[in-house]
Amino acid sequence: MTEDIENTLKIKNGQAVSLSKIPVLEYQEFYALVLDLLQTEDVHCVNYYAFPHNDNLRFICCLADDRTQDIYLLSHIMTTGRGLLKLESLTKYIGTLHIFEREIWENFGIEFEGHPWLKPVRFPHNRYNGNLKVNDYPFYKIESDELHEVGVGPIHAGVIEPGHFRFTCNGEMVLHLEIQLGWQHRGVEHLLLEKPKLLQRTVLAESIAGDTTIGHTLAFAQVMEGLSGISVNSRLDAERTIALELERIAVHTGDISALCTDVAYQLGTAVFGALRTPLINYTQTWCGNRFGKGLIRTGGSHYSLTDELVQELRNLLDDFEWRFKEMADKAYSLVSVENRFDDIGIVTNRQAKLIGTVGMAARMSGVKRDIRHSHPFASFSDIPYVPVMLEKGDVYARYYLRRLEIEESINYIRKVLDEKSCFLSEALLPVPETNLNLSPVSISVSMVEGWRGEICHCAVTDEQGKIMHYKVKDPSMHNWKALELSLRDLEISDFPINNKSYNLSYCGHDL
Amino acid sequence: MIKETQILTHHGRQYIPDLTEACVPAPFRGRPVISSAEIDVKALMELCPTGAISKNPVSIHLGRCLFCGECELAFPEKIRFTNDHIMATNDSKKLVVREGEEGRILLDPDMIREEIKRVFNRSLKLRQISAAGDNSCELELGACGNPNFDMGRFGLEFVASPRHADGIVITGPISENMAEAVQICNAAVPSPKIVVLCGVDAISGGIFTGSRALNREFLQEVHIDLYVPGNPPHPLTFINGILELTRVKHLIQ
Fold first, then answer.
1. In chain B, which ranges are E strands?
2. β-pair partners for A470
């Protein structure tokens, strides 16, 4: 394998390199190398995509090695002439790549031979086959007089985003669930190129998924900083880290509340719901918006975490901690709640590896995927973070993991506040950049562990230093499959608790 | 039981007693005010990511404004975002804040259809449609029913089916892929009904304006009863807008 690695380009999280440094391989070579590198569990694919480049199609594959903190970049160029374009599918051997190959097929019409089923991913406006409409999704069907199908969505009963769920049921039991997405497609990746100003692009990044504003905007800012050679001081790093962890605590708390709702535990619903409010209100006190819109900017920040804000944050965490513990001690020991969550919706360790879950959806099944630990960014490079791991992969694991991660994030924020001398000194927070000089013909890869899991943004620049291609990957791209698997052999009435236990993003997936 | 009571006691009363008088503390960015200071207007207009700022006189269109606050940061002597969250209106012309205007943005009572106050005065059930919303508007609408804001006290509620609803609340810029679903959902709501656009994306397309992935034709076909600006709108902006639209004043308290 060591020889193979020489055929790739090694970079670190957030780094930018010249595009020409990535070895361009023949597809056979590319194919063999990807297969070889992905043999070990410590390496996983964080992004694999194609974009038009000089009348050709350029493929970029980013593989992250958790042992060495390296990202291997591999490339392949395909001449797009006339006729049907075919490539051998990697999904045949590495299931986790299924979604990336589907996406390339949907965008450019490349047939991946041997792919189990090339299905549309999100029906983007610029899809290769414009005749295929969002209502034409080819669902998996089982023909039998005994079975029936239940279709739900795109509009759901709650105040949530749209998606279509198709259950194939035998009585009350779900044999198979398939989720069709794409309803939320707004053309984010294209707009990131078409809107020329940095501020426009930043607010677009904030809107990729409004519940992960900090996560996605941080990934965007890191890409821009990489491409323009800006290094960030430790104070800015610390403030970003705190914002990211606050987002995690707030969303997890809200999700625990929602899980309580779905099992009719009203005290939990009300108290956890009320506990989330001061957290997002603190973000508003910090930057004027409850979701942190406006807070993360390339190269700097408009909203300094002043001494008063630091003190307020410490008080908030102290108050939150005991209130949360008091409620959680009750909610996590209640037999009636445990009984509804335990053993429900299991995704085994083997399944999780097969479909390549990331973030919480991986850690619930004993798969160690946490960018904060494996490819540290911001303060995580200086203050190590140890991921919280569970084994069972059921609803209870996802419910419990949220509690553990909240506790861990509180501790981590305290560590950042304590250990970061930057808060004691008068270290200045730089002013955000308004205009960037991006290095030409370069690529940058940035990863952030959002509350759902790894967010990966990649940008490529042209000869003039303009962004030529921008790729966004939300963790939900991988994790929707886990929800589908969770539902197998469950009663259809268990769907809501499973769905809530993941709380995946529709708009992050659909872009 | 003792434990539960203890928890309840520790949390005390979470609800905001009077939602119509409640204040959102600064630095919340609510209704902007524009001074008459002389500045480089071209640079100001150039700065705005959604082109919400116009000149002669200098004005901000709240249906396009992302409330990112960048204009205030660059030209503090010209633009100031107040913490006034009362911004919802039924008159799209009122969404434009001009130089020197300090007044609150309210609804035009004459434009409210007669049947709205008659039918929805004491109860209003709404069906929310996320049409490519980014989930921040959806979360804030969800928060409207939480223990703090508790809009249920006014008989305001989001319901699971359009058949049970008195109107729809649209969030998001309306993607091509959701266009048909929005039509179907609205058609399923029995009349009389209202249509509310919640958030900058729904009102104008926001930062997604110009995207080829959108289809906003539906908005040409219906009468919009309420515009709720914000990115996302604060729960208080939404609740107060709905109350203004449907309630006879003395019944609010």
1. 32-34, 53-54, 59-61, 79-81, 96-98, 124-130, 156-158, 167-171, 194-198, 226-228
2. A459
Model pLDDT for residues A435-476, shown as the tens digit of each residue: 888 999 999 999 999 999 999 999 999 999 999 999 999 999
**Distance, CA of A393 to CA of A341 (rounded, Å):** 11
Burial of A24 (0-12, 13-18, 19+ CB in 10 A): middle
Give the model confidence (pLDDT) of A204-219 as tens digits. 999 999 999 999 999 9
Backbone angles phi, psi at A456, to 5 degrees: -130, 125
What value does the mean pLDDT of chain B take?
A: 91
Is residue A1 very low, low, confident or very high in pLDDT (cuts 50, 70, 90)?
very low
pLDDT score recorded for residue B253: 44
* pLDDT the model gives residue A5: 67
CA torsion through residues A454, A372, A323, A210, sign = negative
* Choice among A79-88, A429-438, B188-197 with the minimum mean pLDDT: A79-88
Closest residue of B to A156, CA-based?
Answer: B160
Residues 6+ apart with CB under 8 A from A238: A305, A378, A379, A416, A420, A422, A423
> For residue B216, what is the nearest residue in chain A, using CA coordinates?
A186
Partner-chain contact B10 A330, CB within 8 Å: no
Residue A420 CB: number of other CB atoms within 10 A? 21
A 468-507: CB under 8 A from B: 505-507
Which A-chain residues 276-315 have CB contacts (< 8 A) with chain B? Answer: 277, 284-285, 287-291, 293-294, 302
Residues 55-94 of A with CB under 8 A from B: none
How do strand A111-113 and strand A86-88 relate by DSSP bridges? parallel
CB contact under 8 A, B130 and A159: yes
Which 3-state string (H, E, C) describes A465-502? CCEEEEEEECCHHHHHHHHHHHCCCCEHHHHHHHHHHH
Closest chain A residue to B51, measured at CA: A200
| Residue B133 sits at the chain A interface (C-beta within 8 Å) | yes
Q: CA-CA distance, A360 to A346, in Å (whole number)? A: 14
Q: Which of A200, A274, A506 sits opposite B49 (nearest CB)?
A: A200
CA A174 to chain centre: 27
Partners of B212 on chain A (C-beta within 8 Å) are: 125-126, 187, 190
**For residues A213 and A203, is the Cβ–Cβ distance under 8 A?**
no
Condensed to tens digits (0 to 9), the pLDDT of residues A158-187 reads 899 999 999 999 999 999 999 999 999 999
Q: What's the gap between Cα B156 and its chain centre?
A: 15
Instruction: Say whether residue B71 is in contact with chain A using an 8 A CB cutoff.
Output: no
Confidence of residue B93 (pLDDT cuts 50, 70, 90): very high
Strands (E), A193-346: none
Give the percent of chain B with pLDDT over 70: 98
B49 vs A203: CB contact, 8 Å cut-off? yes
Looking up tokens 């906003």 gives B216
Neighbouring residues of B118: CB distance < 8 A, sequence distance ≥ 6: none
Choose the closest CB to B14 out of A197, A274, A505: A274
Is pLDDT at B16 greater than 50 in this prediction? yes
- Give CA torsion, residues A245, A250, A254, A259, to 10 deg: 20
pLDDT mean over A103-119:
92
Give backbone dihedrals phi and psi of B114, rounded to 5 degrees, phi first.
-55, -40
Residues of chain B contacting A254 with CB distance shorter than 8 Å: 139
Gap from A44 CA to chain B (nearest CA, Å): 28
Predicted model pTM: 0.94
Read off the tokens for A387: 């991921």
